[in-house]
Amino acid sequence: MNNVPVFTNDTIVFGLLTITLGFIFYTSSKKDGFWFKFYKVVPALFMAYMLPAVLTTSGLIAPEWETVNPDGSIEEHSSNLYFMSSRYLLPAALVLMTLSIDLKAVFNLGWKALAMFFTGTVGIVIGGPIAILLISMVSPETVGGAGPDAVWRGLSTLAGSWIGGGANQTAMLEIYGYNPKLYGGMVFVDIVVANIWMAVILIGVGRSKEIDKWLNSDTSAIEELKEKVSTFSKKVERNPNLTDLMIMVALSFGTVSLAHLGAGYLSDFFADFVNGIQNQTTKNVFTFLSSPFFWMISLSTVAAILLSFTKAKNYEGAGASKIGSVFIYILVASIGMKMDLRLILDNIGLVAIGFVWMSIHAILLILVAKMIKAPYFFLAVGSQANVGGAASAPVVASAFHPSLATVGVLLAVFGYAVGTIAAIGCTILMQLVSQ
Q: CA 148 → CA 86, 128, 180, 230, 365, distances in Å?
């Protein structure tokens, strides 16, 4: 990432991203002509993800870049927009979208949601070793390496990320001691493959009715939940005044503030607890508990669920979930700008392993969904709760309906909990096939 982008100022980049989103919403609102036909095929949410990636690929913006100082030293720079979106806007969106949740209806979604989540986990666990076997037949050197440079050690970090999240990924790096100098290549594969898979899922959202028909799935529980929230929203609907808007800002960002405060204390407490565990494997299994992001998302969601039992839920009528959706779209754009499509060719071997791996994950999800007649919603969110974690599972869930964002978060929390254990199982299998 040595090329300095045209625009390095986050204020300018943020403006470009919002202009992009404005363009997408303006064109997708057309009722006839080219854009009407275009958005019947390509969902607006997918465009909100891909256009920022095009801006990054063209060199206009970048998530990270390097400059050379006069003394010859290299200085690293990065955009803070994804950090801002994931730490401020995502939890605020979860609060606003969860205010009107019907918790009983969420639990009525049944066992198929969990079944698809765990299917996604199994797909990642078996996908890694199968990918190594298949690629080794074509390019043995791609999956080779010895000691800390062994490719299977690096792939263990992908397993941690794709089942749990960042904390699980770091735990796997610690457990298997992959060469830190090579780690950047694995992070790149993580970003490219996971983001392209998310793009595929978003395209599927636009065709979910046809997919559900092919899967012969029963979507009645999901439709019932959406109907309940829509009916409630219409019942309390009103034209929001300035007081309504300011109270919603206070509720959302006030909750985010308290969640960050609580996350700081809890992550420190559990960091001490985890560091006190003598058994190294057990210690790394619980590493996610020391992650401030995990606690921040969990506390925001719990607080929002509690608020849904108060009069605060009536703010759905003033457009709470619409404001939450604005925050989600900004987050999607900031995720999209992390992907530079030019870099795929830089490490084609590792990227190929990633694509084969993700394909196995996808095929298993499709087979099980077809077998148990699970709706595409469960397939998409079950996959993203594994691969994308708490940052993207609610994005995909809310693409179906804002009221469903919480389902994505709840499943992503499962991912954090089982991430390291499942990733260790995957790595053992990858080590065996590598040898």
A: 32, 18, 9, 54, 33
